[in-house]
Amino acid sequence: MTKKHFGPKSLNCWSYCTAEGEGWEVGFHFQGKPLFVGNFIHKKEATHWYRTMNTEITKFSMRYTFGPKFPVSFFKKFIGNHLYATYYSFLDKLFVQYKSHFKKAVTTDLRKYSHMKKAWGRSPSQPFYRTA
């Protein structure tokens, strides 16, 4: 488990990245309560998001400061929403990469299939049906 603390000790804020079950969990706690939790299948993506999230938290805290009379509940909601917005932007970039990768793979497979089908000639073929 990787853990990083933020802010003054009184706020008790930290981010973490840990293996959970078959995947990875990355999250952020504010005053002991989880504000953000993201799940990943691959360690590489989880650690990449963990680094990005820590950078975002640091940038956010420098840009939006608050004083002693500032309502903490609003700040929790504000930083939580910011983290989720950044998280979904991060995922959109990953999904675009996956989509292009698998689109190329399907094109290659279709080309290979058409060559293999020519080699089969007129032999009987069987469709791929669902069975009960």
Provide a quick synopsis of the model.
The chain has 132 residues and is α+β, with helices and mostly antiparallel strands. The chain has two helices and four strands.
Characterize the structure shown.
With 132 residues, the chain is α+β, with helices and mostly antiparallel strands. The chain has a domain at 1-64. Helix content is 53%, strand content 22%. It has two helices and four strands, in the order ββββαα. The chain has helices at residues 43-63, 72-120; strands at residues 2-6, 13-20, 23-30, 33-40. Strands 1-2-3-4 form a four-stranded antiparallel β-sheet, with helices on one face. Strand 2 (13-20) and strand 3 form a beta hairpin. The longest helix is centred in the C-terminal third of the chain and has 49 residues, at 72-120. It is elongated, with a radius of gyration of 23 Å.
